Amino acid sequence: MGLGLKRTDLQKYAQTKLDDATILFQNGRFSNAYYLAGYAVELGLKACIAAQITAETIPDKAFILKIFQHGFENLIGLAGLTTELKDQKDKDSEFGANWAIVKEWSPDARYETRDVTSSKFLITAIAESDSGVLQWIKTHW
Questions:
Q1: Distance CA 22, CA 130 (A)
Q2: What are the structural domain ranges in the chain?
Q3: Cα–Cα distances in angstroms (integers) from residue 117 to residues 8, 28, 51, in the given order
Q4: Percent of the chain clearing pLDDT 90 (strictly above)
Q5: For residue 136, which of 87, 70, 63, 77 has the smallest C-alpha distance?
Q6: Cβ distance 139 to 79 under 8 Å?
Q7: pLDDT in tens, 59-91
Q8: What's the burial of 108, exposed, middle or buried (CB within 10 Å: 0-12/13-18/19+)?
């Protein structure tokens, strides 16, 4: 993530990463599709965090450093969405199942081989129109 990204840029990049992951999946590039799809969630969560940063205020250095990490649970906390995530999982079991799939992603996936099934599950968990993780994130960014 480069310095100076605007929230609207992060929103656009999140959707673009998911779109690109879908194209890779459709062309049999399952490992790269899996890897790229996870970044859609990361960028979406970072857009939620960006919404909390007040203009003309320098955030705490520790807060800023944590933004550059990749762990979804950490980013959910920084975005102030811990309670909202729990509530959503409690009220929508399909979302809960999708989150369980998505939270297993890490940037280390770039070194792993993924098959059609794991790639499809991740992309679906992120992109599903009613209970997908990115759809939920979009309600908070």
A1: 18
A2: 7-138
A3: 32, 11, 34
A4: 82
A5: 87
A6: no
A7: 888 888 788 888 899 999 999 999 999 999 999
A8: exposed
